[in-house]
Amino acid sequence: MSSNLQMKILAKETAIYGVSSIVGKFLNWMLVPLYTYVLQQQSDYGIVTNLYAWTALLLVILTYGMETGFFRFANKEGENPQTVYSTSLLTLFTTSLLFAVACVLWQTPIAKALGYPSHSEFIAMLGIVVAMDAFSSIPFAYLRYKKRPLQFAALKLLFVFLNIVLNLFFLVLCPKIQDWAIISSWYNPNYGVGYVFVANILATGIQTLFLLPAIIEGVKGSKGIFSWGLLKQMLRYSLPLLVLGVCGIMNQTLDRILFPFFYNGADAQAQLGIYGACFKVAMVMMMFTQAFRYAYEPFVFAKHKDRESVAAYADAMKYYIIFSYMILLGMIFYLDLLKFIIAPSYWEGLKIVPIVLWTYIFQGVYFNLSFWYKLTDKTQWGAYFSIIGVVITFALQAIFVPRIGYIASAASSTVCFFVLMLFSYIVGRKHLEIPYDLRRIGTYTLIVLAILAGYYCLAQFLPLNEWIKMGIGTILLIIYCAIFFRLDGKALLKRK
């Protein structure tokens, strides 16, 4: 198979995985207005925010790097891919089942420890959801290994679709038809946020059922062979990845996990709900920047030869920052419109949105910078950076959340990824010299800071209504786009 054909296949599969991921995240993001407008109290969304942060962390722990291990050993010379699959599958099935049983049996003490003594069933449901998701990671990896991106994407989107439909059914439709005999026999109008978790467990269960053909195919092909020797090798390879994965996800979720423990007020869940909802508003940045990476990475690999790859990484970084700044400005200038995504009772937390936007930018830059230790096989540095990030986030949360609340949660993540970005750049220069255009990046950064300073000064000192502010913001955004087109836009359009 020619190199060009391989690149075309790679680009096609990347597009399918990328589009499905972006669409899935966008559709899930659309649940935010539903929750903030429908759930009765801010504390209800605080519960959702906190528990789903826990599930993200637990999912990384419960998969313990086996997904990556599967790819490594399935493609390793001398190993039978079907044996690798069945061994991985049976291992994760066992640990996931034990975890689910533990959550069901000990739901009450766990719920008390997390601050939900009256709703221990939430712990049981989410424990089962995490267990099914962890187990499903291997069949999904198998689909990727077998080059079935359409099936992979369809099943991922199936979950999102089912989750949205079930949420609409329980939270919107059922309250309107609760007097119907078929509904009133089981529906509890006071259960509220509990139906969020009911919808999740049902959607996850159905998705797992649709994975059965892939599960049966793999086990049947290997005749259910389980290799202890292979498992030991896979664990030896995968467990170090667990440290990196846990620290990485903690850097992204620790703010929502720790907040109830550090916040001194009696309204911790309500404050967390406000924080979580406003945090979600800023996730537009994450979705757009992720979409940019999915679009630009295939371009880089398709258009540049090996000898030019280093320059391509530098270009990718520059354009990532340019477009991220464009989105940052747009979201800040049109925040008066975006705020309607969430209910008015949450608007007091909108002041964190610019902070979170900067967090996503620094996070994206940090991930782009991670090329150097991946290319040089010095992945231990990724673990070092992640551990440093966890320490920074924990320390800042512990010191400042009791004093200034959720603003400290947002700022701690920003500081964390800013420091990691600097560390990765400084250390990376010693191992792989990538000619980042710091002068041009610095120019755009100064332009953006100047635009924001001017905008905030006008908004602060002049009696401007929301529409005039958005008009001024539009002019400033056009100015930024014009500067970009003048400096780099023409060159980008001329690329072949």
What would you say this structure looks like, in words?
- With 496 residues, the chain is mainly α.
- It has a domain of 211 residues.
- The radius of gyration is 24 Å and the shape is globular.
- 35% of the residues are buried.
- About 1% of the residues have low confidence.
The number of helices is 22
Based on secondary structure, the structural category is mainly alpha
Mean of all residue-level pLDDT scores: 86
Taking the sheet with the most strands, its summary is:
none
User: Whole-number radius of gyration?
Assistant: 24 Å
- Low-confidence runs of at least 5 consecutive residues: 300-305
Keywords:
496 residues, mainly alpha, 22 helices
Overview in brief:
It contains 22 helices and no strands. It has 496 residues and is mostly helical.
Map the helices and strands.
Elements (H helix, E strand, L loop, with lengths): L2 H27 L1 H8 L3 H22 L2 H9 L6 H25 L1 H8 L5 H26 L3 H29 L3 H4 L9 H17 L1 H11 L5 H35 L5 H14 L1 H21 L5 H25 L1 H4 L14 H17 L1 H5 L4 H25 L1 H23 L9 H24 L4 H29 L2
Helix pairs in contact: 1-8, 1-14, 3-7, 3-12, 3-13, 4-5, 4-7, 4-12, 5-7, 5-11, 6-7, 7-10, 8-10, 12-19, 12-20, 14-15, 14-17, 15-17, 15-21, 15-22, 17-20, 19-20, 21-22
